[in-house]
Amino acid sequence: MSHIGNTFSRLSDHEGSEVDSDLEELRDDIAKLDESVRSFLASHHGLEATRDSLRGGLRARGTRGPRKAAKPRGDITARLSKVNQAFLNGDYDQALDLATEVIRINAETHQAWTTLASIFRERGEPGRALSAMVYAAHLRPKDISGWLECASFALDLNESQGEVGNNLDTARLCYSAALRVDPTHIDARLGKAAVCHRQGHYAAAITEYKSILKRRPYDLEVVRKLAEACLDSRNTSTAVPSAVEAYKQYFALVTRRWPPLQEESLWHDVGIFVDLLASINQFEEAIHELKYRCRWLVGRSTDNFWEEWKEDDREWDLDEMRRSSADGYCPLPATSSLPGKALPQDLRIRLATYRLKLGHESEALRHLLLMGWDNAQRKDFVEEFPFLAYDLAFELHRHGQQLLAIEFLQLLRNFLGDSDPALLLRLGQSYLASGEQSSAEECFLAAIEADQNSIDARIELANIYEKAREDEEALILAAEAMALQEARAQAHISNDLASKSDEEARSGRGSARWHQRRVQPDEAVSTAIVSHESVVPRRYRPKRLTDPNKRLQDEQARVAKLTRHYKAVRDLKQQIVAGREDLIPAWMTTSKELVDDFRSLRRFYTWDKYLHFLGSPHQPSKFTGDGSHSELSEILGIAPQSEQHGGGMAYAGLSAHRGISFDDWLDLFLDYAIGLAMMHRREEAYQICKAAKDSTVFQSPEYCFDIDVAWSVCAIYTNDEERCVTIARRLMRDGATTDSYRMFALLSRLIQSPVAWYTSGPAQKFVLRQIKALDASQSHQRRHLSKSNVDTCLLMLYGHILFTSTSYAYSLSKFSPT
């Protein structure tokens, strides 16, 4: 034994690492031996038990479900202890390597996955941590706390990083897994309902909330969430009744208590309840329920004689004049406060709005008169209840009360700003109905600026400009509206097809349909229907009905702004050339604004080119519609006559625009196009080149040549072989000189393309036609060229094309001097 001890002592002094390795292997072997002994004894006892059961009769029924996880082997336990020690020491890299090794040996080790998730969290990798947590939860599928922890972490990650789609899906799957273990788990079902609501799966959320209310009908918070989901649902007519029933059931439970609950929140819930009824157009029922529930809240639930007065709301008056005429009413003492003063402002405004919807205009105006607001009080109400103010203003506008409607809408605009296109459109319509054309124009322009896909605002503006003899701008707006209308129709078709395919894919699985969140009615649906990038380009829209002096000031301010931008573009370009590549994004942004301003001007383009720029390449006769859209078709019908009045070549004598020469404008166009191509935005670069090519001010041969060269550079940067060859052929056609043939050969070989583009059949035929044209012409005159001899470069080019395509005999005929 002493000999063995001395040996270990020497090894520890000189070969410690090898001893550690040997000891580790020895421990692993001992652990394996112990494991094999335990398994042998277990199997032996199992056989004995089997014999006993056979002798004693039928065996007892075993436990159902997944087997209990086996205890980790000794080597696994040893490695896990090392993982924990490294994690506690802060050595996350080593802990990660050791945990990965354990998982490689046995991927079903739950502790390894939970430790791995903790390591990833400490290393700042929450996405990988979530994946590890989900895998660990799968290893213990009956552990509800594990699933809920995963779901909570996914939601926290969604809030911090904004990765909405994947994290919400993960949270929903985790909640569903927890519900498979315990379908009665309220927290899991609430979590799943909330996730479904955030995803826009309103039908699924409604189903979950209804399931919770079957067990907890007194849970007011769940009732509110159900009401919100029903109001957000696209199909409110079928969804809202479930929320109405939930509120009725809740009110019935609360009414059984005496005295009733005196909570401020119940006034708010009465408002939600009647809003649900109003959303499905049950306005009479909404008025009845509002008065009945409010009567109960003020302690007068036994005054049933007010049910006879359905045409007015006299029971909530602030005086006794009409109240005293009700049968069964006993006037209150002078010291008592009238019930009408207890009615909250928002509920009285709801009564006024519902009365307007039913056509009871005088009763609605009486409610507004009873409010007795001054400007400050009205402003406070609008800021506290903007949606109620908007609904009231809409109904006032519909009943011709334009001044009152404008007051509420203008306060809403001051509070919300110019970000709501529906509000701006409604305010413009109210101004228009009251005869204030200039204010209406300003609102409609602001609505278009807020929503580039707004069709109704363009229709209103087009009608205004047509009456004001601003024919060209009316035509432009009509073309834009038609382009948006066509895009919306195409989007509807695509959505219908997608909906059908979704239903087919989901049939038989009982899953809820996917719904988009509701948007403002009738006005702003284009934002959700048309693509994120509007089909109509953004452009500067001057006010045409404002005071002439103000219009001149706006124009001068616009010119000054563009001049500053052009100076900034030149300065940025010089710095970029000097090596400041970090300034490229700022240069691109400023250049885009200048280029877009030039492209938006009708006078620099023919009508058909400008119509194509607006996204509406069709002829007016192809558009059909009814109402205001058919009027737009009539407006567009006079578009060809406008060509002889403005635009196009009428500005050919000009040499500058906005104080910038046309040469500089073209350089700006081409520099911006090449910049887009360098960023691999091929289609946008080509659009800029085409916009320059289509402009009436860039039609000279020199301008066209510069555009073609820049276009070819864009094609080279984006590896567009076909475009390079097409542009080279265009240069040969427009200027058949030695340089053009050299350009064709250069572009054909410069791009990273197969030889097929250089030797294709169309290329051979095109060059051969050039040769035949020169042979047939005695004077060899071409457009823009003087007399010249036979072009040797052309023959050499064609000979090389034939040689590359293995037509050696024909190529020799072109190379031969005879």
Q: Largest sheet, order of strands side by side?
A: 1-2
What class do helices, strands and sheet pairing give? Answer: mainly alpha
What level of helicity do the residues show? Answer: 55-70%
Q: Gap between N and C termini, in Å?
A: 109 Å
Percent of residues in β-strands = under 5%
State the major sheet. Answer: 2 strands, antiparallel
Low-confidence stretches: 1-19, 47-60, 500-532, 617-626, 640-650, 782-788
Question: What's the gyration radius in Å?
Answer: 39 Å
Shape, principal axes of CA atoms: flat
The count of DSSP E runs of length 2 or more, i.e. the number of strands, is 2
Mean pLDDT: 76
Short description:
The chain is mainly alpha-helical and 818 residues long. The chain has helices at residues 2-14, 16-56, 74-88, 92-105, 110-122, 126-139, 144-161, 164-181, 186-199, 202-215, 220-232, 236-255, 264-279, 283-297, 345-357, 361-371, 375-384, 386-398, 402-416, 421-433, 437-450, 455-467, 471-506, 526-529, 548-577, 584-599, 607-613, 628-636, 639-642, 662-678, 682-694, 701-717, 721-734, 738-750, 756-759, 761-776, 792-804, 808-815, and strands spanning 656-657, 660-661.
